[in-house]
Design a protein that fits this description.
This protein has 5 helices and 5 strands. It is an alpha/beta fold and 168 residues long. The protein has one domain: 3-Layer(aba) Sandwich (Rossmann fold), CATH 3.40.50.720.
């Protein structure tokens, strides 16, 4: 039997691309907020406990950075952490969890070219998105089955970069 994988953030670029790539070899559930509200603690726990995934790939994020976003920037930290911890608190009911970090957890205000992994924790980010990724990474460092895959400059077929950059 194929391994069961849950991919959160189902409508996003990374989730759609992973689903397309992995669907022939694994049983994939790619969910967006309409199918599972990651902010709802009880629903997340019940869903994960019931399904017992081998791997959870957490690509959902509450990012209000694009200027046209209807998301309230005041809730970026709170909502990103709620989604993350609603999943991680279920760690005994899944095999592994991978979530995506970025350079944001290094502190955007102090970015420099070609930063390596050792740069993490030199600064605490001052923006809500960076701080949420920083807190997730700090938690992950003490976890046995949660992993941060830090991505930089990832673009592809389902990424509508024009929405982010052309409207500025």
């Amino acid at each position: 039997m194929n391994k069961k994988i849950l991919i959160t953030g189902g409508g996003g670029f990374i989730a759609r691309s992973l689903d397309e790539y992995l669907c022939s070899s694994y049983q994939i559930d790619r969910l967006n907020r309409d199918k599972l509200d990651l902010l709802n603690t009880n629903d997340v726990f019940s869903f994960i406990k019931k399904n017992q995934y081998d791997v959870i790939i957490h690509s959902a994020t509450y990012d209000a950075a694009p200027r046209f976003s209807i998301k309230d920037p005041k809730f970026v930290l709170e909502n990103n952490l709620k989604m993350f911890f609603n999943i991680t608190r279920c760690s005994e009911h899944f095999g592994k969890m991978i979530y995506y970090g970025s350079g944001a957890e290094f502190g955007r205000e102090s970015w420099k070219p070609k930063m390596n992994e050792e740069y993490f924790d030199h600064r605490v980010p001052t923006d809500q998105y960076g701080l949420s990724k920083y807190v997730m990474t700090k938690h992950t460092l003490s976890s046995d089955n949660i992993y941060n895959l830090r991505l930089f400059g990832v673009f592809g077929e389902y990424d509508d970069w024009r929405l982010t950059y052309e409207k500025r």
